[in-house]
Hints:
The complex is a heterodimer of chains A (304) and B (457).
Chain A: E1 2-11, E2 17-27, E3 31-35, H1 42-49, E4 57-62, E5 65-66, H2 71-77, E6 78-81, H3 93-103, H4 108-121, H5 137-149, E7 155-159, H6 167-182, E8 186-190, H7 194-200, E9 203-208, E10 211-212, H8 216-220, E11 221-228, H9 233-242, E12 248-252, E13 255-261, H10 264-276, E14 281-286, H11 290-299
Parallel strand pairs in A: 3-8, 3-9, 6-7, 7-8
Antiparallel strand pairs in A: 1-2, 1-4, 4-5, 9-10, 11-13, 11-14, 12-13
Chain B: H1 3-6, H2 9-20, H3 22-47, H4 52-57, H5 63-92, H6 108-139, H7 145-170, H8 176-193, H9 197-202, H10 210-239, H11 247-267, H12 269-288, H13 296-300, H14 306-312, H15 319-340, H16 344-373, H17 376-398, H18 417-422, H19 428-452
Helix pairs in contact in B: 2-6, 3-5, 3-6, 5-6, 5-7, 5-8, 6-7, 6-10, 7-8, 7-10, 10-11, 11-12, 12-15, 12-16, 15-16, 15-19, 16-17, 16-19
Amino acid sequence: MKVELxxxxxxxxxxxxxxxxxxxxxxxxxxxxxxxxxxxxxxxxMRMLATLxxxxxxxxLLDGKSILxxxxxxxxxxxxxxxxxxxxxxxxxxxxxxxFGRAYSLRGKALREALDGxxxxxxxxxxxxxxxxxxxxxxKQRVSLARALVHDPQVIVMDxxxxxxxxxxxxxxxxxxxxxxxxxxxxLISSHILSELEEMCTTSVIIERGKxxxxxxxxxxxxxxxxxxxxxxxxxxxxxxxxPGIKEAEVAGPGFRVCIDAGDESAEQLAKELFTRGLAxxxxxxxxxxxxxxxxxxxxxxxx
Amino acid sequence: MKLDFSMNPVALRELRQLxxxxxxxxxxxxxxxxxxxxxxxxVSSASHGASxxxxxxxxxxxxxxxxxxxxxxxxVACLGIPFYAAMKAILETGRNGPGLEFTTALTPARIVxxxxxxxxxxxxxxxxxxMPFFMFAYLLRGVPLEQVFLVPFSLFCYGFGLFAVSxxxxxxQSHVALRILMTVALFFVTLIxxxxxxxxxxxxxSMARAPSYxxxxxxxxxxLVAIVVLVRAYCASQLAPRHVDAERPFRHVLxxxxxxxxxxxxxxxxxxxxxxxxxxxxxVIQSALSxxxxxxxxxxxxxxxxxxxxxxxxxxxxxxxxxxxxFFIIAVAGIxxxxxxxxxDHVCTLWACVAExxxxxxxxxxxxxxxxxxxxRFRLVGWxxxxxxxxxxxxxxxxxxxxxxxxxxxxxxPCNFPGIVEKPQEHLYTFGIGLIMSVSVAVITxxxxxxxxxxxx
Lengths: 304, 457
């Protein structure tokens, strides 16, 4: 299934543009990280995708069909996991999921199978008789995910799913997301924890003040982490900056980070150049946390 | 298929929550105990001083316990439960816009219907648990048998009707505190007014006559069904996300009720006309000032032919279609009244009231939309109309200037409401111009939306 957001614009009271001409698309098997500072318009965009808000202009297409013309398409195809947790404290997990199963017109055996399936997938089987009040935040997030999956949607929209989770729960969430992508679901995930997103996502969309920011820079560059035996310091940094192919360089912990053109050839060229200049590295690795760099680079007053 | 699979999911959820709630469980357990205690008190009070012969062969002593049971059940079924259900609905409805139910296959009407069903079952359970005490009072004699069934039935109708009305407040798109305040006011007024029907029934036990009760029960249930159907459709239109053509089902229901009730117009023409003129006038106000715009889903489903679109347009969501729809209702009801009523003064008063009530909202709504459109030429016209309306009202109402110069002379429009009612025929031109302006503005402002009411290419 292909999801296309075309020139979405949403204006709130007093002319505040929460989303401004936003366009992007994603398909089955893809996990898209939806990144932006607070108030960037992520939640509004996701609510529009879930048909809880209506755009002032633009369109959202699912396999070429507009969900604005026919919201029922979205109800069947999209599972929305909002950033707030389930709030019916006296309801058991089973009853909560049962309600949404029925709300998606599941009945009888189909309903039972759907509930068993999502409870098993999200690890809630042993918690089904507990009330939501008795669950930890991580388990409530699982309930919320199970609710979004109960009707087996092809597109899953998750707003800050890792918010407030402990490290173990985050790792488990990551595994669940990977499993969903492997099952051919299209996922759109927003989060502030960029390192988490980077490990889950196949691509990312960065927005600020409702506008999509260009990630051309990120697509064309790569960061390499280097460490040398003995003292590093300013002298080495100066040498690095003089080398051809290095766009940026900075001290990072006990070593350095350098920015070069993306691609294996550039990395190979850099390695050769380092040896030529007598700077044999004891650590040479592509930098994890690239999304953070991209985010910092593109949101740094890009629209100011 | 199991019963619970065919039940409305929202009703099932609400009932499950009620069963789980300790407060409700305790209340339902205590209710019969309280009834038992008060019934015994009433019996001992009634039997005090009565001879065994009177009790065995006289009029009986059932009326006092009957009134006692009726009042307690009335407080629970007509005030307590509807108030609880209304508060719950307010707190759960629209806290952060539409809830997650609206991302499912449930329609807004089913969501509202689920709440109504759950409340109906709870009220029915309370009334049913009081039935043994009503029967006990009957066995003590002094209460007609039909009253034993009609009083609980009327209590149910009243309690359920009150909840339905309070659900309209709960579904309003306004602040939670304001909705709570309005609901409290509604119940307070109901309590003060002492309108609980049981008082009317039970205080006339000795005058009870079966035919009048049957007729009353018929009207009670008919009005209740009409209210519930309307409330369901209206609340659904209010709660629905802005994607959908939310007001169309409401207008369909309203039109169906209008046509069905037209059968009653043959027997009761005047109440029918006046009722629908009042409903139409309220609809004009509600529609004219509605911020809703026609959603794309409505345009996508527009009929292809011009005539089809013309007929379908007033039913679609939006301010201008709503005003046109309301004017249609008023026109049919008002014109019917004009022809059937023999009293010219009454006819003039009716139209004067329509003009007075509809004029300002229609103009104000038009100005709001023109302002929203931000088209300078329309804005100028809008501001001129606004200035005119404000000037007239301030001059007439604040400075008490009499714009009614002489009979048959030109008088400026929205003035002196009581004056119009007192001497309606002297204001023929006044409300005539008002009505013509209202309708003209409604029609003119509908042209652009109607042109846009077509399927996207």
